[in-house]
Amino acid sequence: MKLHEYQSKQLFAKYGVPIPNGRVAATAAEAKQIAEELGGRVVIKSQVLVGGRGKAGGIRLAKNPEEAEDLATAILGMEIKGLPVRKVLVDQAANIDNEIYLGITNDRAARKPVLMGSAAGGVEIEEVARETPEKIVRVHIDPLLGLRDYQARDIAAGIDLPRDHWRTFGQICKSLWQAYNASDATLAEINPLVITDENHIIAVDGKMLVDDNALFRHPDLAEMRDLDAEASSEIEARKYGLSYIKLDGNIGCMVNGAGLAMTTMDIIKLFGGEPANFLDIGGGAGAEKVAAALRIILSDPNVKAVLFNVFGGITRGDEVAHGVLAALEEEKPLIPMVTRLVGTRAEEGRKILADANMITAETLAEAAQKAVAAAKGEAVRCAS
Ligand code: GDP
Ligand code: MN
After folding, report:
1. CA-CA distance, 137 to 126, in Å (whole number)?
2. How confident is the model at residue 285 (pLDDT cuts 50, 70, 90)?
């Protein structure tokens, strides 16, 4: 789950990271009022769940409350990378001398969190990693020991931070680590962490990703989820306990089991097709869940064919078939559907589906080939 900038910064602040004074607003009038309360220059920041808002015109400095109101009006009417701006953060503007990057994420290869710093802050870190990787300094954090003081100092030295900031910088690194660790985050990022002309260090931007699988023990964080900012298909999928990720291809996939779902995607690619999604309906999925999954797959206008790949273990083939039929009844899709059903009572299931005019297949390879052909508009026949 992604958190908005204002949410991430509030969380960072709770653990001791200095952030600018400011508040979030949903209307230009509110933004004006906040600017009046803060006094002086403010920055109006679009709250959308994408990076690069600055370049897109979604971050603007205002000299006075009137200008804050005008800029908030403009920004609240914007769409950034396809996402409508519904809120703006009004922050006291910082006079920036220097922009630093500071972030923590999981390094899967090292099986540890990694703290990264760079003197090339403000720019997206992916860009720095691509063009000037030597400018990123890293230390791995032992999750049992936590971040040690010397590690933060290593980063400070590695990015040539002036000595007089090391102490504060070390505290900020520790606070960021605590925020990351306590929230079960997969990313906690400050870009930029700035040094102001008054020689203060302050987190001007904030970004956090929280592991969805840990949200059950963070009801306060789960509550922060902004449904407005997420794809409706993914919200729907979550409601039914489906693991769904939308992709760019045209073959919708409905599979039970994450491993089987990945295999299905691989084999579609092997035969020259492109999966439209990853979808794991899970074990023992009933008709209602199957119908919801199909509805979600079909809501993607790119989908030209659907491939059901179900392995009946605990789930019985005939039950799945009835679920699929119920879903078809409800959805009445006009695109070809290919099914491959194996395992417990698969034969019965296949018969039910073939009688309903679905394209059936005996093996996964055959099913994938048929789905690829069907998505291209070629005529495909049932297995006998
Ligand atoms: P992003 O573009 O989505 O990463 O949004 P940021 O919050 O990082 O803002 C982008 C850039 O705007 C920063 O790198 C700064 O250069 C600038 N910026 C943001 N806040 C302030 C501020 O308070 N004062 C000044 N002078 N510049 C700011
Ligand atoms: Mn930023």
Report:
1. 14
2. confident
